[in-house]
Queue: 4 jobs
Job 1
Amino acid sequence: MLTKFSVKNFRGFPEKIELDLTHPNSYEYNSFAIRGGIIKNGIIYGPNGSGKTNFGLAMFDIVNHLSQKVKRGDYYVNFPYAGKKNDDVEFEYEFRFGDTVVDYSYSKNHQGILMSEAMSVNGEEVFSKVKNIFSIDTKQYPMDANIRKNIAHSANNISIFNYLASTYPLPKEHYILLMRQFVDSMLWYQCLEERSFIGFENHVDSLEEVIIKRNLVKDFQNFLKNVSDQEFTFVEPNPGDKFLVCKIGGGTIPFLQIASQGTKALELLYYWYKKISSASFVFIDEFDAFYHFDLSFKVCKKLFDLKCQVFLTSHNTYLMTNDLLRPDCNFILDRNIIKPLVDCSEKELRFGHNIEKMYRGGTFRV
């Protein structure tokens, strides 16, 4: 699981901002949101322009860095903070795999070129490289002096992590392979003016073509009914069809011509929901931008039932209720700080409190 993340000098974050998921409160309700002492599910709120989208993108820099999964082509546009364009962007991650704690950090310049990289396991340094200074635990990774020298002075700024993962024969449960598998299984997506995603897949699919090919048309029809109470009757597709067609009043019409923005967002959610049973960490930006408030609640219930870590951003304070999550799983991001509600007030927060009303009343301050 991902336990901590921080970034510095990325876009709107000139100073270090850190998300720490290792200190859940002792609430006895909604325990599904905590696993092994780590916060598994959360919703991030914040004013417009506070950096919710950029924070999610920063968390997924590690996918751009280590994985061969799908990346955003425009990611490195406006990469460092505008006031410090010549400074590197610094990333720090902490993962926990059973009893093994992996700390991984690196920095990149304004072009996205790797400038430094370090890893430690359970507090013991595994490797470190800053400029031309390179060190590595040679007991774990035997390496002669010439190779170490070549790595230290390499002109192509290779990732030491990727080098070790691809060069050394490692057992299945080795922390490097576990971390690589975790990163390869991370998914970020949004459905706003445009649909985009990072990670998890190696290519971009047509949503409806996948639904048809996998014989999920009836299942998708039932999903729309169960989640949003919308009744669609789809024409049975022929082999090779790429678009869903609806029956209406004795006639037919393509689904996308009559689907609302919210229904199209549900189609995208359905597509990913059918795929992410094997995901490690899912981040959906503005997940309910086109949803009715009650639909947002139902979607959260389905997403938080997944085994993987799921974090969402939203402006919908209807979701800020102890009937859905807990005060240690609702986060506020503002002014280069991100904190759970429980740390944003001196008041003792209990199940019976209306935390949405308290939030609107200004009780919580980061």
Note: The chain has two domains: 2-201+279-360, 210-261.
Job 2
Amino acid sequence: MKKIYMCVLGIGAMMMLQSCYVQTLSVGMNEGDPVKQVAVVKNHQFIDGLVEPRYDKVENYVEDTQHFKVTTKQTFMDGFLSGITFGIYTPSTTYYYQPAE
């Protein structure tokens, strides 16, 4: 019984120690520049993000392709869904920003 308890405790600790994934790409902008959010897109990926059924182009979401910022995050809900499916379905969320005028 003690082995089962320790195994469950270990798996729970591993799941709690995972961090959220955040990636930011800035083109023609500095880090402190004011921005406005122009779009939010859900990304549906499989097998820990290795397989993505579609690829979005930045031109579809921003007007000025010389000055924009893209942030991709794995939110809490995305991580929760990934944990439930044991990494088979791994969603993430992408935020598109333009300079504030």
Note: The CA atoms of residues 41 and 77 lie 14 Å apart.
Job 3
Amino acid sequence: MSALSFRMGELFSGPGGMALGARFAALSVSGVKLEHAWANDYDLDTCKTYRRNILEPEYGDRSTVVNAAKDLPIGGGGVVHQNVHDLDIDALGAIDGFAFGFPCNDYSLVGEWKGLTGEYGPLYSYGVKVLADKKPKWFVAENVSGMRGANEGRAFKQILEHLQQPQGGPRYKIVPHLYSFDEYGVPQRRQRIVIVGVREDLDVDFRVPSPALYRGVDVSVQSALTEPPIDVFAPNHEFTRQSKDVIERLNYLKPGENAFSPRALEWMPKRLHINTKTTISTTYKRLEPDKPAYTVTGGGGGGSHMYHWEIPRALTNREKARLQSFPDNFVFEGLKESVRKQVGMAVPVKGAQAIFTALFMSFAGQDYEWIAPNIKVTEVLEPNSS
């Protein structure tokens, strides 16, 4: 069988979690070659991170960050730093595969749940335009679990319809599934909907990889952060200077407890209590060493940085990157708050790797253990058909 070669493009690429997972997957599947042709993100630090870790190993000095699609290097190796509203999709090069983790702000249960009526909700449509224009053989789209319920379910139905049949483009066989990434080797409870599409004219069927393939993988926080120990000089490993009150508050909390835990409030001095109208369960929450972490996020104020189970301090960005399954040699560009945002918004590398491995094995005609998707397309698009 001849080797399969895929040129991959990305919108909303983030720092490269999806791309690195795809790279690792291609290296693990016999007969598959993957090239990262182009990518796009609106944040400059994020683009620089993507160039350094994804494009530079592949293209060397030819890799670059550009401000418009027309300036992308011929042959690939560029990331476009530009708001997707201004992106010239026609000028992007030809691709065989496409990935996009479109912004989740308006679909997140933590936010206002505006869905398609919000600022970010309609951004998926730019991915649909790429499908119509470039006609890739496959695509992988990622978003938060709350996408299913936004706009009373209408948003999810519309997104699936448009991905299945992009206007002016080919029809796709789509497989949406709610993945819990801790079941796929990621030391973090992070649930995300991932929609995989394969062009309908191709004799290839994607199936959801079974979590059984990853049974026995240690996804505990303690293992992730200590095996092996993180070098004190590792990149992005700057410690946060904690105030006396934060240190004292954390010392009252046991692993798994947060600032509003009844036991802690009973013993904690009133001056250390958090007085807010809403009680978010992850506020000053300490990790549990023998379990996966709760979801790594890219923003938030005091008490939202994730906290060590034993030492009274917030995690470093490098530690959070490990919880997102990035290797320690993956260097994030920018200042500490910029890096925090990049790490939190990224797709976990090992989660992406599991999905791309199944996708590439499907194209290569190789068998793997699979499960039925937990989201049925027919039930979303034709709810009364049964």
Note: Residues 104-120 have pLDDT under 50 and may be disordered.
Job 4
Amino acid sequence: MKIAVIGAGPAGLALALLAAERLPDTEIHLFDSRPLDRDVRADARTLALNLGSVRLLQRLGAWQAESAQAIQTVHVSQAPPAPVAGEVWIRAAELGVPQLGAVLPYGALVAPLQQCWLARAAGQPARLFSRFGTAVLAIRPRAAGVELDCGEGPLVEGFDLAVVAEGGVFAEQDRKPVTSDYRQNAWVGSVRLAPPGLQGMAIERFTRNGPLALLPLPPDAQGPRAALVWCLPQAEDDIAGLSDAQRLVVIQQQLPEVAGRLTGISALKCFALGLNVEPRLLQGRTLRIGNAAQTLHPVAGQGLNLGLRDAQALVDALHDWAESPAAGAVGLDAVLARIDRQRAPDRWPMIAATDFLARSFAWRLPGLPGLRGLALAGLERAAPLKTALARRMMFGA
């Protein structure tokens, strides 16, 4: 079998490494328009990984703990004014796990994955191929497979399967069958905090305008710091006109006391937010994973985690099929269709939950903040439900 993996981001690299490990008779070609000599470590975008994703990267030998900040506690709360403030505490120690997840820069995740892939490809040059600096312009169906158009004519050889893992951000994507523009912006960057900082605590604050999140980062020479994700309706977004000092004041006013005191803020980047989903992962012999399959609102921080589970599920299913005595009687198309169905219970509840939360911030119903506060207070008291939700967020369905 020959597989083309399109996109050397976290999901694509993880898929290629998993396939190289678990599908020893499969030829794998990894494509990316990015040149190999581009320094991916310079990309400081922040990623939040759940415990399941951390364990997957550890298994692949691509986890560098010194570059990441473990999340030990998650605090979710409703900002005033609300009749019931409401808050939920989720602690790793109470769940019997070493951590709930981790936060790290994009480059600190992709660089080790890429290094692992290149090392493995160098050891098996007849089976594993790196095609960096090669943009895939089109994927065309052919008998029992696909061919790729890379701008230099179609590849002579065909592929049994193409996996698209190159998603991009909502504003740059072609619209998929299930789509919605939330008309919200996410301002992302980092803030500095007075000691002792968050100490491994992630904060999600539901404000009148949208969610505001602080994610702990490893401290540097200047002290504690955290990644910031600040969501606002586009019609009321005046952040671009504020000074750094004004931004700090506005953010501080909306955070709970447990966040501590902010002392500085980085330059912020703005991204439009929306939902963009393929109803099915599979179209012929082309399968989409990660942001190429589902681009979600960042309210729950689950987009990349969902993509890594897509990759793992695909490789696990192909491995089980290849090892099965009945493999000859069950075709690849049947296996791929089964994967599509099996991913649905994990994908669609997460898509629905993030979509509901994102839309709810546009509803200015008088009692809504109070209802949200009551829901949080109720969840905090319902220990079995809180535990089930926490484990769903850590490991998926």
Note: The two ends are 29 Å apart (CA to CA).
